[in-house]
Each structure stands twice: as C-alpha cells, then as structure tokens.
Design brief:
Elements: H1 2-20, H2 26-63, H3 65-133
Helix pairs in contact: 1-2
Length: 134
C-alpha cells in the first residue's frame, strides 16, 4: 500500500514543481493546475476502483472451497511439522550439550600435562631471569 502512495506523491510533486517553474502567466498556470487536478482526481478514482476490484477478486479466490481446503491442510501440515521439529530439536540440543560436555572434559584431561609443562617452563625461565638480574 505504501508504494502506490509514494508513487502518487512523487507524481503530484513532479507536476507541481514543473508547473511552478514553467514560464507562464499566472492565469494560464491556474487553468493548467485546475485541469491537471481534474485529471489526477479522475486517475485516483480509477485507481481506487481498480484496487477495489482486485481486492474483491483476491477475496473471492481465497474464499473458494478448494483454496480454503488447501490453506487449511497446509496449516495442519505445518503445525504437525513444527511439533516434530520441536521434539527432535529438543533431542538434538540435549545430545549436542552432552557431546560438548564430554568434549570439554576430554580437553581438560588432555591439557593437564601440557599445563604442568608450561608452568614448569615458566618457572625455569623466571629462575634464569632472576639469576641474570642479580
């Protein structure tokens, strides 16, 4: 709905600016403005009538028994799909959490010897620095 309104606003602004900057006498400009507003009013009425007709056609289409049936069955299938996805999503999320906890635990176990080696090396370097600083 916003696009047609923007279009009409742009058209009106363009017409207005074009006429205001045109090198014509005031009386000629007013006469042209009057004519163009009549044309624009007619155009607006025709556009409104066409949009009402289109709206009526869309409503008729969606109220047809076959279309209504398709929409209802699609909604039911979507609802079933979402229930299944939610169930399996919960299961998958629990499984992923368990796997991640196991992975973290395994990393912690494997990193302990490395942590000890790093601490030992840091202590060695600190002693060497202290020795040289004295």
């Amino acid at each position: 709905m916003k696009k047609p309104l923007r279009f009409l606003t742009s058209v009106l602004a363009g017409i207005t600016l074009g006429m205001l900057f045109a090198p014509k006498k005031g009386s000629e400009l007013r006469r042209e403005l009057s004519r163009s507003s009549d044309k624009l009013g007619t155009f607006g009425k025709e556009l409104l009538a066409a949009s009402k007709d289109a709206s009526d056609e869309v409503q008729k289409f969606f109220s047809r028994k076959e279309v209504r049936s398709l929409i209802d069955s699609g909604n039911a299938e979507l609802s079933d799909f979402l229930k299944i996805a939610k169930k399996h999503g919960s299961e998958l999320s629990e499984r992923a959490r368990t796997e991640l906890e196991s992975l973290v635990e395994n990393i912690e176990k494997r990193s302990k010897p490395l942590q000890k080696a790093v601490k030992k090396k840091i202590e060695s370097v600190r002693k060497t620095i202290q020795k040289h600083m004295q």
